[in-house]
Structures are given as C-alpha cells and as structure tokens.
Amino acid sequence: MTRFFARLLRFDRPSDAIYIELVDSLFSLVPPMIFLAISVGVIGAAIFARTGDWLVIGLTVATLVVSAERILMALRYRRARAAGPLSFAAACGWEKQFATRSFITTSIVGTMGVLCFTLHDPEIHMLMVGMLFAYAAGTVTRVAYRPKLAILNLLILSTPSMIACLFLGGTIYWCLAFLIVIFLLGGFETIQHLHATIVSQLTLKLRFAGLARRDALTGLSNRLALNENLEAIVAAASHAGRPLAIHSLDLDNFKQANDRFGHPVGDAVLREVAKRLSWLTRENDLLVRLGGDEFVLVQADVTSREQALALATRIIREIATTYQINGNAIQLGTSVGIAMMTPEQPLTAEELLDRADQALYQAKRTGSGFMVHAVAPQLVPTLQDGSEIEDARKIVNSN
C-alpha cells in the first residue's frame, strides 16, 4: 500500500521551460473560475433560503470574494505575460499566488460542506455532495498541470466531509465516505496521467519550437529566432541603460571555395565558422546564421565601444585561420559591420539591423578586415564608384 501511494504521488521535476508553461496553463482558464463562483453563489443562496443559516451565507460571500480576486489575479497575470516572456522566478511567484488563493477557496468550500452535513437535511446533503464532487472534478482537470497542488486541494476539500459522514453514521453515509475515498484514489491516478500527458506534449512542443528556430546546418539560431528575440533584447538593454552592439558579417572568398571544392566541403566550412564564432559568444549573446555565409552576433552587456571593436577584431582573426577540410587547406576572410546602441542614442531593433547592414556594406567596399562603427543615422556615408578608400586595416568610427 505504501508503494502504491508513493507511486501515485511521485512526479519528476520538469525543466524550467516546461515549468513555466505549466504555470502559464494554470491561468489560461478564467471561465471555470466564473462558473465556480456562480455555482457556489446559487447553492449557498438556496441553502440559506431553506435553512436561514447565516454562517452558510457568510461562507458563500467569502467564496465569491476570493473567487473575484482570483479572476482579477488571472487578468493581472495575462497583462504581465503580454509584456514579455515569463522568467522562472516570476513563474514561481505567480504559482504561489495561485496556490494561496486556491487553498483559501477550497478550505471555504470544504468548511461549507461540513456545515451542511450538520444540518440534518438529506436534500441539502445531496445538493452539497453534488457541488463537492463537481468542484473536485474541476480541480482534477484544471490544476493537474501542478499535480501536488491539485492533490492537496482534493485532500483539503474532501477530508472534512468524509469525516463528517463517518460521524453521521448509517449505511448511506458510510457508503458516501467510502465513495469519497475511492474518488480521491481515482483522482490521484487521473492527475498523474494528465500531468504525464501534458508534460510529454509540452516537451514535444518545445522541442519542435526549438528546431524551428535552429539552423539545420550549423545548429545556431536562425532568422526566425533573431526576429523573435532581438526586440526583447533591445528593450531590455534600453531599460537597463546598457549599450548594445550588433555585428553583421559575411565571409570573403567563400563562394570561390564552395565552387572549387564542392558543397559538402562548403557545408563543413560553415559548420567550422559557426563553431569558431560560438567560442567568441557569451551565454547572454545571440549568434545567428541568417543563411548562406551571412551571420549576425548580438553582443549584450557592452561596457564600451572598445569592447565591441575588440570582439570584431577577434572575429576577423578567428575566421582568417586556415580551415583543413578533407585534406584541403581553405583560406577565408570576413567583413564585419557594427551597429551600436547607447543609452544616449537609443535605436529600435530594425534600425540597429539596418545600420549594421550599412556598416557591413561599407566594410566590404573597403576590403576584408575593415570595420565600420555605426552609431547614428548618418553613420555610413554613401560611397561613389572610384571614391578614395582608406586603408582596409583601419577601424573607422563614424560619429
């Protein structure tokens, strides 16, 4: 028996990403909260009309007040969720708020059940049993996302009424207490099954979502991931008052190497380039392959302009190192365009990408290794054919 209960109550800890999704699911169903409030209100009013018991109407009003606050909490959550992704710490905080209000509601309904069983009116008992089982069924289906929370709610709801039935005595009430026990065991099993199913579905969902945002050849983030994340990264940098740099780059001489040695070798070169760029990327940076030989590196938490330029210098040096692929020595170069946002000159994600592209174009016009630092709309002067080009080894800062 001990092993049976241990198996029912054993739930593996989900990953942080799945946990956030599970907490999000708790707040996805506002209508059931409204239906619960209406049901308790109607049943409480009916029992009060029959018995005139003011404690019943008091518990009914308390349930309605807590239910209204739970609905408002769900609406606050939705607004917070719309403002940006939910962090693990924030998800823990929201779950605690949900759990607190859920336990209060369940305790009030459970107390109302015990009170109604003391009224010695079989019709009221029947009405209350129906409400208790309906509430328990709703808990099983709605809160199974967080199984321990659901199980504790079931125990708080059912145990007092089960004890009341045992005290009332008689075949009917003993059978009712037995049914409550059976319902609890079945509820535990159902919660375990629902939780396992939900976690499995979310795991597949996140896995496919991750694949959709990954470049199949290099394993780096792709254009979709850049589009989805860059705006949030820029907003976070602006809010914190931190500079942000975007490095736009493509490879020099890659097309010639690809044509000469073939596409399999070209693919191997791109994978090696991605590996080298990953060595230079910190955990909070974002490295993206846009397609072909084009890459973008979003450098977060930049402390100075020199830090951004130093990273671009390391990129050029790493990419220029000879590639040994299938016995072939392949030499590449790269051109880097930098767009930098500062607290004094905030830019949108689209403006940053546009300026980085302009800077890259300028860099390619001047030759491999030439970097243009872009910080303002006028940062990249238009070059005419035949214009004098500065030494390609210089770093040009356009202010």
Q: Could you explain the architecture of this structure?
A:
This protein is an alpha/beta fold and 399 residues long. It has 2 domains: 2-212, no CATH class; 223-398, Alpha-Beta Plaits, CATH 3.30.70.270. It contains 13 helices and 8 strands. It has helices at residues 2-8, 16-26, 30-51, 54-83, 88-117, 122-142, 147-168, 171-212, 223-240, 254-261, 263-279, 305-320, 349-366; strands at residues 244-252, 286-291, 294-299, 323-325, 328-330, 333-341, 371-374, 395-398. The strands form 2 sheets. The protein has a 6-stranded mixed sheet, sandwiched between helices. A two-stranded antiparallel sheet has the order 4-5. β2 (286-291) and β3 form a beta hairpin. The radius of gyration is 32 Å and the shape is elongated. Mean pLDDT is 81; it is low at 374-399.
* Structural class by helix and strand composition: alpha/beta
Side by side, the strands of the main sheet go 2-3-1-6-7-8
Ends apart, CA distance between termini: 76 Å
Whole-number count of domains? 2
Nearest-integer average pLDDT: 81
Quickly count the helices. 13
Order of helices and strands: HHHHHHHHHEHHEEHEEEHEE
Largest sheet features: 6 strands, mixed
Estimated share of beta-strand residues: 5-15%
* Form type: elongated
Radius of gyration from CA coordinates: 32 Å
Number of strands: 8
Q: What are the segments in which pLDDT stays under 50 over at least 5 consecutive residues?
A: 374-399
Helix content: 55-70%
